[in-house]
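Figure 2 data, in text form.
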Amino acid sequence: MNKFYSLILVTLTSFSSYAQDVAYDSVSLGADNANMVWYSLSNGEVGTAALADWHIALDVRPMGSTARINGGLGVQLFEYGTLDQWETASLEGWEMSEPQYNDQTDWSNAAFSQGGDGMFDFGWGVYDVITHVVTSDRTYLLQLADESWKKVALLSLESGEYQLQFANLDGSAETILNINKSDYPGKLFAYCNLETQTVTDLEPAEPWDFVFLKYLEDVGNGNYYAVAGVLNHPAVSAQEVNGLADPFQDGNYSFDSFSMETNAIGHDWKTYVPQQGYVLENERCYFVADQDSAFWRVVFTEFEGSATGNIGFGKVSLTGANAVIETTADDLFVLYPNPVALQGSVNLQWKGRTTSNHEVAIYGLDGTLKFRRSISGQMTQISLESLSKGMYIVRVTNGNGGLTTEPLIVQ
């Protein structure tokens, strides 16, 4: 790691240790964990939907090209054969294949993507580099929670529009749904119910960081089990830290240890103990960078199991207005407000001895220079009109080569 990135890491580690008040909150998945709950660390619960509302979810992001199955509802997906076998698909004489599961580490690696080559074979279909159309080459059988069966083919993805075909095994109730990504701006998925033959926009309009729900997870050695847990928005990252005497105050995070995996928090913050119930990991916290690059500490405090689906947790904002870092260098400074609003200005005030021959520079976390200028005086104001939302490092040098840094959040 080079010197500059080491400096970023040290700064962020110091930043995470600043203690603030704990805000306690809770969500409820309902009896038998029957609901999905979308949650924003800044704004609390922002949406809920019944898990039973959907069977297949189509990825409607601009580069999305897959479909997930509702494993938490008990839906299972099996590859049957080529698309040419659609008409004759039957359970009779069928040698059942292994089920295909969602990879819970990555929203993009869904059940319908399994078996692809990561290049032009998307699993359910093949991408044509000339026409830019993905065309189906497979027939699937899908078993619903009531153990009834459907045959399914994701026929195509062309110009941002999916064609999804499904029917009963005897060929009745055959349906083709056209799902256009442009109808779901800013959303991850469009949710299809094969029984009602409908597509629904279930995700909230407000930004969210977590979705709490029941889902299928590989609990070891390829054994999948329905668990209640947390999946992160793809713009959210997290780091798990264990062995903390006080998980609300102890421990530091390292920026390069944050994980972008969808189940970076997941379900294992609790363990089921026979005749005792669920026991929480009481020496663990999760450091979370939310969609606005604000940092949080999250500690789970309660799980009542499937009887109620109630989940309790505490959260600590690590980037609030009072989260100011003071370095040990001769020239100390503070930045405020921090976080600062998009298109706003930030004040830099000196607390050290010298106030001339200084240079201030602002860097992105990838090391790119965003702003630089010479400054003098006890206080200066810096316009941030050229910066987008995110986290930055403010670096100040003096004429003697002294260096101080602080993180800055633009939101």
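Caption note: Residues 55-200 form one domain.
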